Amino acid sequence: MTPHSLSQPVPAPRLEIRNLVRHFEGRAVVDDVSLRIQAGQVTCLLGPSGCGKSTTLRMIAGVEMQDSGEIYVDGKLICDTVFRVPPERREIGLMFQDFALFPHLSVAENVAFGLNGPREEKRARVEELLERVHLTRFIDGYPHQLSGGEQQRVALARALAPRPRIMLMDEPFSGLDNRLRDGVRDETLSLLKEEDTAVLLVTHEPEEAMRMADEIALMRGGKIVQQGAPYNVYTRPVDRAAVAFFSDTN
Ligand code: ADP
Ligand code: MG
């Protein structure tokens, strides 16, 4: 009898990047970075400013080209040095610190922005997401009527509305004041988990990675120097520089 576990095909990761390299002005700012993220999982790319986090994210989004390396989604190649699926066809949701809402569109119109299909279906999706970020009361409101934290939650709803396979988030909470940040982080995390997307969250704050990540990839000088569960990365730092980075409270 074949053991059940052996006959199960192992699913390909939702997102896999292999050996990504990107040079600027003769310098490798992303230097052989590989990552695998399953659907439903949050990986934090954590590291100091300038270490290559945003460049890595932009290559996955398709707005920056790698010099070498490959990107796969659900086991399918979407980008190498000769073949390239354009950004708008990658089914990737994006959220950046200054990825502002459209000021002239209502909250509902903002959330519906990337949606196609029948009006009623779009409306149902918008209502569902606004309920889940507890902003139903603002459905016909406009961005300027919302606080910074509320605007971030609308931006999250907008990014998730088309059910992206992957969410890329680049320091999405750094514009928020401390008082709001933890609440928005927690709410964001629970919504991401419900949506079952693969998340790559870029941050330079260890605390944020510890709070949100299933896995931390610690980056320095263009390379991933350590990778693992937050507790393991925190309690077993790879070297002195990692200790210093984690104990620096900014
Ligand atoms: P991080 O997001 O970790 O702060 P970045 O990926 O933005 O780092 O940048 C990594 C390095 O690459 C930095 O030294 C930055 O100055 C450099 N860099 C990024 N984009 C460009 C560019 N378009 N041209 C030249 N250098 C760049
Ligand atoms: Mg950056």
UniProtKB/TrEMBL annotation:
One of its GO terms (molecular function) is ATP binding. It comes from the Bacteria. This is ABC transporter ATP-binding protein. The chain holds residues 1 to 250 of 366 of the full protein. Keywords: ATP-binding, Cell membrane, Ion transport, Iron, Iron transport, Membrane, Nucleotide-binding, Transport. Residues 15-246 form the ABC transporter domain. The keyword Metal-binding does not apply.
